[in-house]
Amino acid sequence: MKNMKFVLAALAALAIACGTAAAEPLTLRVGWIVVPAEITPIFPPNVALHEGKSYTIQSLRFQGSSLYIQALAAGELDIAPFGFSSFGLAVANADLKDLKIIADEDRDGYEGYFTTLYMVRNGGGIGKIEDLKGKVIATNAVGSISDMAFRIMVRRHHLDDAKDMSFVEASLPNMVPLLLEKKADLIPGVVPFTLDPTVRAQAHTLFTGVDAMGPTEIAFMTARASFLTQHRAVVVDFLEDYLRALRWYEDPANHAAAMDIVAKFMKLPVDKVSNWAFTKEDYYRPPNGEVSAAILQKNLDAQHEVGFLKTPLDVKQFVDNSYIEEAQKRAK
To answer: Suppose 139 and one of 72, 147, 195, 196 were both cysteines; which one would form an S-S bond, judging by CB atoms 3.0 to 4.6 Å apart?
Structure first.
């Protein structure tokens, strides 16, 4: 009888331990490139209801969206906010055909919102696209969103991006110094770096992302189908919290608190972010979190048109709105 009691006690302890283990939040490894375009590294306190309960975020910074491809393939990343460029490369060229798009984050140049500025120095002898022949071009990563839009633009102007110019890689915050110090002749410029009065006085925009591509899908949450199937409930929790955080940031009543969070994360004075973040000087964020399949299809078609994708892609095969739709119902 004593032995039986011991066995029952041991089984009870084991059940409690298993239950505790099952309740441990899942670590979601989520990629990001720039804040506040992406808000997953800066969920505001007391807004994300499920963070720390069903999941915790491990924010992993990348220099360009093309670098997500290897991380996903190696199992080192769970959710990647691909842009159109790297997504197309991942599926058509890297054969990651099990990717699913579950939510949108940002669009470039949509309905008058910010678009990437491709900037050159004043007096540098570059007045048109054709003048880029023989020049040094800065890119944050080969195959990234801004890199791909640039290459599509110059190919349409009958320049060979592989032969007619050279490239230097740098992070987005370091682009302006590269240009002004004459280490590059053209840079992709994004806020807040392009708002610096120094660069505005010494450089100008040669063309924009909209000029090159029209509106573009530049950050949409993507994961492998096997991960999504295994962790569906947690992913929906995460997307519900994302929608709540997005609404919090875009609510004028929270503007001061929001700017304080953004400024501290970016290590900038508040007045350097408050005049553009979450305004039309910033990227567009769809409030329902749904990717525009029509815009993304046009983006991928353009990649295929100029030879960057081996085969055309049908976006409908990869978009799965069921996750964000469930999150929308719960986030109301």
So the answer is: 147
